[in-house]
Amino acid sequence: MSQHHKNPITELDYDTLKKILDNSFDEIYVTNAEGIVVYVNKAVEKHCGVKAENIIGKSSNEISAQNLWGPRVSPIAIKRKRSFTLEQKTCTGKTLLTTANPIWDQDGNLELVIENSRDITETEGIKFELENSMRMLDHYKLEMEKLRKKELHHPGFICKSKKMTDLLEIAHRIAAVNSTVLLLGESGTGKGIIAKYIHSKSPRKKGPFIPINCASIPTELMESELFGYAKGAFTGANEKGKIGLIDLADEGTLFLDEIGELPLNMQAKLLQVLQNNKYFKVGGREVQTANCRIIAATNRNLKEMVEKDAFREDLYYRLNIFEIEIPPLRERPEEIIPFVHFFLDKFNNKYKVSHTISQNALDVFSKYSWPGNVRELENTIERIVVVNPETIIEDHHLPKHFHEDAAVPSNANTTPDKQIPLDEAINEMEKNIIVKAYKELGSSYEVARVLRTSQSKASRLIRKYCQQDDVVNKSV
């Protein structure tokens, strides 16, 4: 025997209906045809900071006078006889997206206006942050483009020697591939210029060229500078995190100058990047992908550092896929005078002067050994152009040690019985440069500026070589 069940019709009583409406996330605000408020839900109280009993029974004009929110949408919807949406601000600082919907009876008379408002304050904040981020991104792109153009703007190479001509031909061929390059050579020979040249001739030339001097960044900051750090990585960190130089060099070239100064713990992390193209930001858990070419440079003997466990052997061979050794200026003397004229023109234009140089001065330049290489020559020309009041640069305007160096026969210290180890010779040369520069300039700041190195490194070298009075007195 079958049983027939009749589903009862569920009717919502007033209390149930009110409970539903009061628990709506969106606010509901209802007026009659005369503009008198007949109902508001709890969301209205929350958004406007006022009790329902202080709103119901009043006209919209009375309530508007209390400045609880911006202009009501209802009058516009009634006038246009259709739904209308508008953003409003409330006295509690909320941003509402309000839609007013007029209800008409069958005779075309207005019965009710129902306003539905959604709190979009947080959405507005996200929208603002997004717009701000987009503006900042455009700004960073513009700055990166300016930086890229600035970094790639370098003087044309002066190649009057076969050594430099051959070197540039090799650099041009290496530029076409994506492998790492190790640039060797004394300080001031132009390793940075060669790195830019390789980048400018590579498939990555439209990407950024990001240089970093490994000796100028404190050890404790090196990892965050290179890899960046995640949001909240450590106390005092930027709350949004920081982008690292590897990421900045995306689709371009990262130039690691003075790679021999990189701490051992960072050498291990750099090796992972070179081997796997993967890394982690400081405090981060997401694997980052490195998409940049790495060019490294040093004036140190990395092979000897490997033997002394001061540089990782695996990193050395990973960097040394292509090795280019840049000869010192004294081994390409035919380029000295062209460089003199090039830098003289450069600083004449920069300082709005018109200096020329005498043949006697050029002869001294030609005979000088240039331990600081092209950088020393450039700095010397700039200093003379700035401090020399006379139009013609004569030999007596040159530093005293230029004349004494030029007076020493070029083979005076190269006889077999006077040969010394290469590192010792380099250290002696570094000592002479620092002592002479410090005696002439008198401060680590000026030494750093003229020799184009960091002040911290200049201070360390000054402490190393200029502590004893007899050392300074012996310097020229």
Task: Annotate the secondary structure layout.
Layout: H1 14-22, E1 27-32, E2 37-40, H2 42-48, H3 60-64, H4 74-80, E3 84-89, E4 95-104, E5 110-119, H5 121-152, H6 162-175, E6 181-184, H7 191-200, E7 209-213, H8 219-227, E8 228-229, E9 242-243, H9 245-248, E10 253-257, H10 264-276, E11 278-280, E12 287-289, E13 293-298, H11 302-307, H12 313-319, E14 322-325, H13 336-351, E15 356-357, H14 359-367, H15 373-387, E16 392-393, H16 400-407, H17 422-441, H18 444-451, H19 455-465, H20 469-474
Parallel strand pairs: 6-13, 6-14, 7-10, 10-13, 15-16
Antiparallel strand pairs: 1-2, 1-5, 3-4, 4-5, 8-9, 11-12
What is the CATH architecture assignment of the largest domain? 3-Layer(aba) Sandwich
**How many domains make up the 3D coordinates?**
4
How do the strands line up in the largest sheet?
2-1-5-4-3
Terminal residue distance? 123 Å
Largest sheet: 5 strands, antiparallel
Strand content: 15-25%
Coarse structural class = alpha/beta
Going by CATH, the homologous superfamily of the largest domain would be P-loop containing nucleotide triphosphate hydrolases
Helicity, as a percent range:
40-55%
Radius of gyration: 37 Å
List unreliable stretches of 5+ residues.
Answer: 409-417, 468-476
By DSSP, the count of extended strands is: 16
* Backbone shape: elongated
Q: How many helices?
A: 20
Mean pLDDT: 81
CATH topology (fold) name of the largest domain: Rossmann fold
Any idea of the CATH class of the largest domain?
Alpha Beta
